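2024-03-11 09:14:02 DEBUG pipeline.ingest accepted 1 chain
2024-03-11 09:14:02 DEBUG pipeline.ingest length=836
2024-03-11 09:14:03 DEBUG pipeline.predict start
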Amino acid sequence: MSSLSERYEPQRIEPLWQQRWRDAGIFRANARPNAPKKYILEMLPYPSGKMHMGHVRNYLIGDVYARYFMMKGFDVLHPMGWDAFGLPAENAAIKDKVHPAVRTRENIESFKKEIISLGYSYDWSREINTSDPEYYRWNQWFFLRMLERGLVYRRFAKVNWCTGCLTVIANEQVKEGRCERCDSPVVDKEQPEWAFRITQYSDALLDGLDALTQWPERITSMQRNWIGRSYGAEVGFAVENAPGGEVIRVFTTRVDTIFGCTYIVLAPDHPLVATITTADRRAQVEAFARKMAAMSKEERTAEGATKEGVFTGAYAIHPFTGGRTPVWVANFVLSDYGTGAVMSVPAHDERDYQFAKKYGLPLRIVVEPKGGEKLPAPDQLERAFTDDGVLVDSGEFTGLPSAEARTKMSAWLEANGKGKATVTYRQRDWGFSRQRYWGTPIPIVYCEKCDPEKKGIPVPDSELPVTLPEIDTEKVLTGKGEPPLAKVPEWLNTQCPRCGGPARREPETMDTFVDSCWYYARYLSPHFDTLPFDPQEAKRWLPVDVYVGGPEHAVMHLLYFRFWTRVMKELGLSPVDEPVTRLVTQGIVNGPDGRKMSKRWGNVVAPSAIVAKYGADTARTYVLFAGPPERDFDWSDEQVEGAFRFLKRVYALAYNHQAVKGATFDGPFEGKALEIRRAAHKALKRVGEAIERLSFNTAIAGTMEYVNALYAAQNVQTPAEKAAMAEAIRILTIVLTPFAPHLADEIAQAYGEVTPVVTREWPAFDPALVVDELIPYAVQVNGKLRGEVKVAADAAEAEVRAAIEADEKIQAALSGKEIKRVVFVPRRLVNYVVAG
């Protein structure tokens, strides 16, 4: 049994404890195979080289849970790995001429060193690296299984082309018309790409959100909006005098307003525009289309953006009235949203109203408000009436409420072959092929003989993984022209797996979202070599119990990996529909200047600097105490100092009471000894409950109050007081372990513990010790204080009222009065609202 030295020296003790934890393997999962499981996971990092405080906070949330649930008797899985593929490493290679594999390896070593220095409880035996062929082989395996099921296909599509990265990026990576990675403009470009048919799962993904009751509502709302299921009708407007019988198909959720449609609008790049535009309008329409092509979708459709368009010269036939309806093109309609065409009802849609007013197009009122109120005449209408109502001037449907009209009009369209009721989705299939080197090669070859249509021939499973070739970085990673892998002929040219003749590999690679779709399952068996992971381990560990990450991933990673999880279940690999039970989204750590930490602002605080000066436990305690995990906070050097002073006080308390270690007492505890035990068990209860509800700052505040209570006890002299203090110090190490584990273990060892505190059981508090004997309740009658009554602190409302109403003074105040209601404020007051 060692003793504490006089000074608190975190730089000395923390590396020692980290090494002991590693040597003992205390964080390895499956240590308790018969215990209930907890799978705690944080979103795996992209190894950019240096940790920032956002990483620290993210991983600390998971770490607190992992340590706490270990002490609560669970078998805990808490792994870590590296999202190692990606554009930043490739861009750095282009700039610095350093191979992405070299830069990534260096960054991982640096990042991992910093993680270890902060004392996280990771099971490093399960470490994964997504750029390792052992991992990305299974990306390719999934691709082939999805290809077999029709969930992967080749399409010719308009893609988001980043003019800076010179590659295709996902819709979700476009922020206000610019690349979220490099901030360069993004333009539309047509080219072949590979896509996952995620829309086949739109209903399942949307309906599955109802079961995610432990996900933040803002995340599930964002996913609902992204999927965007809309119930409505598809309507066909036949183009007048069209030689090919062209029909403009529109989708509307308000078919009840169709008699008010006074013009049709197409996207400037709608395929029918070139066909139906009249000769006298062609030059104007083509000029407008070129102007729109040079603008981003966000610029064209932003709230407040000017609505503009041109008339094509063509007319469409209204399906209900047979009337001629002019066809326009406009900036606010996109070809890849819905059908790329809208019916415009300016009296009942605000956007259509603004456009109609600008270009002098007619308004026709066809829905009046319920209750008999009449709208002004169309030329006096100041804004569109967009609510449901009662139909007017709508033929046989006049007089119907909007909802009933929608049903009957949809049925009429279907019966007359002019449309039908339908459901549409905002979500589109996920295009995932990228013109990069540093990603998973797509296991497809093209053979002129066997595959003249270039649909792609799958590489056999026996030839997986298709690995990335060694390259001359300067020659291949130029950032210009064709995909990098197309510049490596010895890799590109291969044999056809069908005929054995010459073939060409697919030179594009998979987006890194593929890597992060299923990594949580690879942790279960990171070296399993017959399937992506062991299905038996999936039965044991899935779903993930607690998942921690940023809310910015709501409609990217968090949606994609829900899709992938359902596919894995269909493949017989996993028993679950959803990957995660509880999602925790952490807030941003801002710099001292209140702006988000960024190299751009020069306000980044490096975790390594804090660890070097104050120790890991101070960094951990400060970040966790700064506020609730989901909220942003501003960095404060003064509060870091405060966290350090608190831990020094804890250490000094333990140092000063070392004489009590091992003390026991069999008799009843009274006086100071009883108060010490009360403080200890109250802390045990408060901290545990706070951790359970994700209120780590409250847990640390409770620990601070506890330490103050032990200091207030001052000298302990009697056997009972010494035994109470010995128990209190042991409990202090328990409640401190999730936040400051190195210090907790150092103190526990000095007090006789031979194993790390995290391997001990989180003890149950004694209910008799956590209740204050009596607390006062202020008693009011109609808001006026009439007395004070003391009752047991844990008394329920009925017990409190019974005690109050038995008090003679209160009885007198209530005598002859009718009690209308009672306002009960727990542990504070009771107010009787009376009459008479």
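2024-03-11 09:14:41 DEBUG pipeline.report The mean pLDDT is 93.
2024-03-11 09:14:41 DEBUG pipeline.predict end
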